[in-house]
Amino acid sequence: MGIRDIDSTVVTALRTVVVTVFAWLMVFLIGSQSGISGISSNTFLFLFLSGLTTGASWLCYFKALEKGNVNKVVPIDKSSIVITVILAVLILGEGLSPWGAAGIVFIAIGTMAMIEKKDTEKVAGGPWLLYAIGSAVFAALTSIFGKVGIEGVESTLGTAIRTLVVLAMSWMMVYVVGKQDEIRGIPRKAMGFVIASGLATGASWLCFYRALQTGPASVVVPIDKLSILVAVVFAFFLFGERLNRRALAGLILIVAGTLMMLY
Question: Across residues 131-160, what is the average pLDDT?
Answer without folding.
Answer: 84
